[in-house]
Design goal:
The complex is a heterodimer. Chain A is an alpha+beta fold. Chain A is about 20% helix and about 40% strand. In chain A, strands 1-4-5-6-7-2-3 form a 7-stranded mixed beta sheet. In chain A, a hairpin with a 5-residue loop joins strand 4 and strand 5. The longest helix of chain A has 19 residues. Helices cover about 30% and strands about 25% of the residues of chain B. Chain B contains 15 helices and 22 strands. In chain B, helix 1 packs across helix 13, helix 5 packs across helix 13 and helix 8 runs antiparallel to helix 9. Classes of the chains: A alpha+beta, B alpha+beta. At the A-B interface, strand 2, strand 3, helix 3 and strand 8 of A face strand 7, strand 13, helix 7, helix 8 and helix 10 of B.
């Protein structure tokens, strides 16, 4: 044990740029049905890959390497609160690609007893709306997701939330998620833990 | 309740995780008498600032007063008992009950009652209907604790010899603060399962967290899969009066943090260490750079090095709500503070991949105790029993190994003492005997104990 021990494959230092929430009311809805369908197909594929434990494929096929993945939990405060100025939100997730990969890697270590026997996942992705952004080939996407994790005989935990994604076309031509922000609804997480990609 | 804990043999009845009567007695004997964590002063810097908190199953409002002192009140209206404050934090001049509009000042006094004159006709004594005040509120290095029992020792005396170790990270480095708001999650376990784990379990790290250690890349990673045992002399465990305990793993401070962040933290510590060594000595300067796990009795946990601070709030024998804050040094750059908080939540928050491993153990040991036969058995905390001793330099009772169950034994010895005692005065008797009870434990061969 000691400070001099270097870890294998250390994650790189990362900046802490927190993406601002979209103001969807000010964005132009995307009327290009082909583009909307392409976004939907991306989200459906993502749900399938995550539901079937294809986490590496999720990293490689769905996420942009510049991904910023944020899930916040918001402290309960009065609507009219003005004088109390401490930050109202904390970050359940604030990950870049390297940290998301570390989460995925521990699944593949062969040592993750928690998911053996396998957990089962089911994601229902709905209310998909696609908006144009200032950048060409980039979209703001709002969707609702209900993710259920069934584990061992009795554990059934549900996570329901709204995703705000930024999706852009990668050089290879396909759409990728480059930013996901979730402001999680439930304050005290009833589902034990949130070790699940939403 | 005398049969729950066998101090001499280092055993605990599985009933303590399940039985409703045990839980009810815990609320009476522990949560209404011991000092309980409420908040950190940095969350309520200004007069009128408040946070809500839990003390056992009681909800309280913790308010900074005009004179800078801090008071806490039951969050229940004196009329019909409805909640007067539904938020977690804010700044208030008054707290108004939703039900009929009774209004209380930040000092808890009942200020106004709608239509008081017309409806109560002078028969309501407002002066005796203020919010019920928590008997004692006190801070230690900015950490605010409350206690319902006016007869309890002071907070300083309650923390006692544990302070010698707490001061290393709460004071010697120039002080710390907690970054909030806390994350909150509900775990299906008994509140003692996590509290005891953090008080003194370095044993599970390499095994329970094997995957996280392997994939996460941190200074503790060589322990993954029990590939290696910390060498002889790599750490120690400590039990102090009133059930507090801790374990130290030398020179592994950035703990569960990723290596790039760990290197930044190490560089930060290297700058501070000479001054700490000068003021506090080489031994405690080394502890500053070590990983320290600990719990303050009954339900308040920290990991110095992995930077988490938690309370395990009981919602019943089989439900525990976890509140998690990040510990950072006050004078760190803001960006570094935030990145430490992110990293801590990534590992030990609600979505932390270390935390989820722990949760599963805590849930299964709690839930299996429902079994009638299972509950008749005892749980074993005998590792290192017989070797616990007093030390000339180190306060408390010391177990001389990085891995052992010294602090478990200290935690549950006091658990039994406070569950049995009718008052704090009765617990005075233990002041002179607790160390001997722990150091003399294990004299009877363990093989006689485990019969079910």
């Amino acid at each position: 044990m000691g400070n001099d021990i270097a870890a294998s494959a250390p994650p790189s230092a990362s900046s802490r740029d927190i993406p601002a929430a979209f103001d969807f009311g000010k964005l132009e809805i995307c009327l290009d049905d082909a583009a909307c369908r392409e976004v939907e197909r991306l989200l459906m594929r993502e749900a399938r890959l995550l539901d079937t434990e294809q986490f590496s494929e999720w990293l490689e096929q769905v996420l942009d390497p510049a991904i910023r993945y944020v899930v916040t939990s918001r402290q309960l405060r009065y609507r009219k609160e003005r004088r109390y100025v401490a930050p109202p939100e904390m970050f359940l997730f604030n990950d870049d690609y390297v940290f998301l990969k570390a989460r995925v890697d521990q699944f593949y270590t062969g040592m993750q007893w928690r998911t053996d026997p396998p957990e089962r996942y089911r994601r229902l992705v709905t209310n998909i709306e696609v908006f144009r952004t200032a950048a060409k080939d980039e979209f703001a996407v709002r969707s609702n997701v209900l993710a259920q994790r069934s584990r061992r005989a009795y554990e059934v935990d549900q996570f329901i939330c709204c995703r705000e994604d930024r999706v852009r076309r990668c050089p290879a031509g396909t759409l990728r998620i480059v930013q996901r922000r979730i402001d999680f609804d439930e304050r005290s997480i009833a589902g034990r833990n949130m070790v699940i990609f939403l | 309740m005398n049969s729950l804990i066998d101090v001499q043999r280092g055993l605990q009845s599985a009933r303590i995780y399940h039985d409703q009567d045990v839980f009810e007695l815990e609320m009476e004997r522990i949560f209404s008498r011991c000092w309980l964590f409420l908040t950190h002063e940095n969350a309520i810097p200004n007069a009128g600032d408040f946070v809500t908190a839990r003390m056992g199953q009681d909800e309280v409002i913790v308010v900074r007063q005009q004179d800078r002192s801090i008071k806490a009140f039951l969050n229940a209206c004196r009329h019909r008992g409805a909640r007067v404050c539904p938020v977690e934090a804010g700044n208030a001049r008054s707290f108004v009950c939703n039900y009929h509009g009774w209004s209380y000042g930040a000092d808890g006094a009942l200020m106004s009652v709608p239509f008081e004159k017309e409806l109560y006709k002078g028969r309501l004594d407002k002066s005796t209907h203020g919010l019920r005040e928590v008997a004692k509120v006190s801070s230690y290095h900015g950490f605010v604790y409350g206690c319902f029992d006016a007869a309890s020792p002071s907070l300083v005396d309650y923390l006692g010899e544990a302070r010698w170790y707490l001061d290393i990270w709460m004071e010697a480095n120039g002080g710390v603060e907690l970054i909030g708001p806390p994350s909150r999650s509900m775990i299906h376990c008994n509140w003692k399962a996590p509290s005891e784990n953090f008080v003194g379990d370095a044993y599970h790290v390499g095994w329970t967290h094997a995957a996280a250690l392997k994939a996460g890349g941190c200074v503790l990673s060589p322990m993954s899969g029990n590939a290696g045992l910390p060498p002889e002399g790599a750490g120690l465990q400590v039990a102090t009066r009133y059930g507090h305990g801790l374990g130290i793993l030398y020179d592994t401070n950035p703990g569960s943090h990723d290596m790039p962040l760990a290197r930044e933290i190490l560089a930060w510590q290297a700058k501070k260490r000479p001054a700490i060594e000068k003021a506090y000595g080489a031994l405690r300067a080394r502890y500053y750079g070590s990983h320290i796990n600990g719990s303050m009795f009954p339900n308040n946990t920290y990991l110095w090095g992995s930077n988490l601070f938690k309370v395990w709030q009981p919602h019943g024998p089989n439900r525990t709500e976890c509140f998690t804050w990040a510990i950072v040094e006050k004078d760190m750059p803001e960006d570094l503070k935030q990145r430490i908080a992110d990293s801590m939540h990534r590992t030990f928050g609600v979505a932390g991949y270390w935390e989820a491993d722990d949760n599963d153990n805590m849930e299964s040991e709690s839930q299996l105790s429902r079994g009638y036969m299972t509950r008749k058995g005892f749980m074993n905390a005998q590792m290192g029993i017989g070797g616990d001793r007093e030390d000339a330099e180190l306060p408390g009772i010391v177990g001389e190994s990085a891995i052992g169950e010294t602090s478990y034994r200290g935690y549950f010895r006091f658990y039994q003492e406070t569950m049995n005692a009718k008052s704090w005065a009765e617990m005075k008797k233990g002041d002179g005997t607790w160390k001997r009870e722990l150091t003399e434990a294990g004299a009877v061969p363990a093989t006689q104990a485990a019969a079910v």
